[in-house]
Specification:
- The chain has 476 residues and is mostly beta strands.
- It folds into three domains: 175 residues, Jelly Rolls, CATH 2.60.120.10; 191 residues, Jelly Rolls (Sandwich), CATH 2.60.120; 26 residues, no CATH class.
- Helix content is 12%, strand content 34%.
- It is built from seven helices and 30 strands.
- Strands 6, 7, 9, 10, 11, 12, 13, 14, 15, 16, 17, 18, 20 and 30 form a 14-stranded mixed β-sheet that branches. A six-stranded antiparallel β-sheet has the order 8-26-25-29-22-21. A four-stranded antiparallel β-sheet has the order 1-19-5-4, with no helix packed on it.
- A hairpin with a 2-residue loop joins β21 and β22.
- α6 crosses α7.
- The longest helix has 11 residues.
- The protein binds fe (ii) ion.
- Fe (ii) ion (FE2) binds next to loops.
């Protein structure tokens, strides 16, 4: 979607004869909005219609939780989500509406089939894990911190390296780069928080000439239909166009900061129909002497706000933690807990890393979400005011994104100058297990992208892999 790409062999012009060893290849136009939207043209060894057996249809069954009360929610997912299924069957729906479906996935097994979402785009945020998304367009390497964007119609399977933890967004609409980030020609403009170089299309097309029996599971009409084909689905010898899977690392998002507080749209990363996905990344905070760096109270009169906390120092006792999800539904105000606005003054930076999804229409909750709900979050503003805990402690709960408080406080206690938050002490226990998405990784990603000397750099497999990936990227 972001720009024109081409891999493998394609004929000189569209819709003309293209042969391999005398055999006419099958041309497939995969496009959006009839024949007027973005499209790619693929050249197959076999007809993509060639199905040898019609398998089962499995309807998607959601167990809805309709709470008796309308309240802010805090879901603790990190320890409570056990690995199960694979990268598709292991997706456990948390919340959904007609525009977007949000799931957690900790796969326990590897996909033994190929998958295609026939009715929606997907964004898989990789909280933990690396691997390769093998697709009909070629291999897409990914690592922790990556958003893996998969347009509908892409046949794929995950090939993970190690344990995985995914936050998955599925939408019947289109995932797009926000319109205001692009000029009339499609180029990402100056001032946007990322650029084309940060977007990584498939790196290598492997045409697999293998026959046998291969299951392809397709999400359609609210369920999964399995088809069996007699050829390997990755039979494409070449393709070109604007439609293909790609990755973007949250560590490559350039935060937009200001003299006074910047509103959440400054963190926007993707646009979908009636929802947005945003990235909250480590950054300097507001620098006006009178600035209040913490978010102001706000009422999401037309929005539901879901935030998934990835890494950083989120506080301790009553606060959010890695893997926490806060849900601030429409119709209710939320904001900093008692004392936090005052305590935030003078803070210089934050180490928080989080993914937010704001929807314009109400979200429905699953029984899985019910089981993760701490049941206490709604009253935490009152209780902290009664206890006086918030102002004195490390608790950042309810502030929206105020993890910098605990980090900065820790720094102050240690007497460090300049508000450095590089080693806040809020992360303990399971939180430290998420170090993969820390600012360290952000630095490694950037240094790997630089052609300069690599003195002092680690030679970890992850780093080497990322380096290869960056270097192996085709120019554009
Ligand atoms: Fe908020």
């Amino acid at each position: 979607m972001p720009f024109y790409q081409r891999l493998g062999e394609v004929p000189r012009k569209r819709h003309v004869q293209f042969r391999e060893n005398g055999t006419l290849l099958t041309e497939e136009v995969m496009g959006l909005e009839g024949f007027t939207g973005n499209e790619s043209i693929l050249y197959h060894l076999y007809s993509p219609c060639r199905v040898m057996e019609l398998g089962d249809f499995e309807p998607i069954v959601r167990e809805e939780w309709v709470p008796e009360t309308h309240a802010h929610r805090h879901l603790k997912t990190y320890e409570a989500t056990e690995p199960s299924g694979d990268e598709i069957s292991g997706r456990r729906t948390l919340m959904w509406n007609d525009d977007v479906e949000i799931s957690l996935c900790r796969p326990a097994s590897t996909m033994e089939y190929f998958f295609r979402n026939g009715e929606g785009d997907e964004v898989v945020f990789v909280h933990e894990g690396c691997g390769t998304l093998e697709t009909i367009f070629g291999d897409v390497p990914y690592c922790d911190g990556d958003y893996v964007v998969i347009p509908r119609g892409t046949t794929y399977r995950f090939r993970p390296e190690g344990p995985q933890r995914h936050l998955v967004f599925e939408t019947p609409g289109l995932i797009e780069i926000p319109r205001r980030y692009r000029n009339q020609y499609g180029q990402i403009v100056e001032g946007a928080p990322y650029y084309h170089r940060d977007i990584h299309p498939p790196t290598e097309l492997r045409t697999i000439r293998e026959q046998g029996e291969f299951a392809v599971k397709v999400r359609v009409r609210g369920g999964y239909q399995t088809y069996v084909v007699d050829y390997h689905p990755f039979d494409v010898v070449g393709w070109d166009g604007y439609l293909y899977p790609w990755t973007f690392s949250i560590h490559d998002f350039e935060p937009i900061t200001g003299r006074i507080h910047q509103p959440p749209p400054s963190h926007q990363t993707f646009a979908g129909p009636n929802f947005v996905i945003c990235s909250f990344c480590p950054r300097k905070l507001d620098f006006d002497p009178l600035a209040v760096p913490i978010p102001y109270h706000h009422s999401n009169l037309q929005s539901e706000e879901m935030i998934y906390y990835v890494s950083g120092t989120f506080g301790s006792r009553k606060g959010v933690e890695v893997g926490s999800i806060t849900l601030h539904p429409s119709g209710l105000p939320h904001g900093p807990q008692p004392g936090l606005a005052e305590a935030s003054i003078g803070m210089h930076e934050t180490t928080e890393l989080a993914v937010m999804c704001d929807t314009f229409r109400p979200l429905r909750l699953s029984t899985f979400a019910r089981d993760l709900d701490d049941g206490r979050y709604m009253l935490s503003w009152y209780q902290n005011a009664q206890d006086g805990d918030a102002a004195a402690g490390d608790d950042a709960t309810g502030a929206g994104l105020t993890s910098h408080l605990s980090a900065a406080r820790s720094t102050r206690r240690r007497g460090a100058a300049g508000g450095s938050t590089s080693s806040g002490d809020g992360a303990t226990g399971p939180r430290s297990a998420t170090r993969a998405s820390s600012p360290r990784c952000r630095r490694s990603a950037r240094s790997a992208a630089r052609p300069s000397s690599a003195s002092g750099r680690s030679s970890s497999p992850r780093r080497s892999r990322r380096t290869r990936r960056r270097r192996g990227r085709p120019g554009r």
